[in-house]
Structure prediction request, 114 residues.
Amino acid sequence: MAIERQARDVVRAAVVAWEGVSSGEHRFGGIEFRVRRRELGHLHPTFADLPFPRRIRDELVASGRARPHHILPDSGWVTVPMRTPSEVTNVIELFRLAYERAVGTVRPDDQSVG
Prediction:
């Protein structure tokens, strides 16, 4: 349990440090992150769930950076494990991608994740 808590704490500390990000309890449990009213994603004990447009989701899955969502596999949502330091880094990077899309710092022609 301590490793799971540490992973969540590391991700939470990184994501809430970005301008305009708030965190709170997610309606299905875990920690949710938002920019204004837009959800960037949420953390469960050993994985994160993040929403992306289907094209980006497909690139993330094809590259091995994420899996189809554990409950909604045909949606744009992805599930990303966070049990190791490299997985935690990947989760933070994907939250950053979601954040940049939410605040408009990613140009429409520069959203490739590959």
In short: The first helix runs from residue 2 to 16. Helices lie at 2-16, 54-63, 85-103.
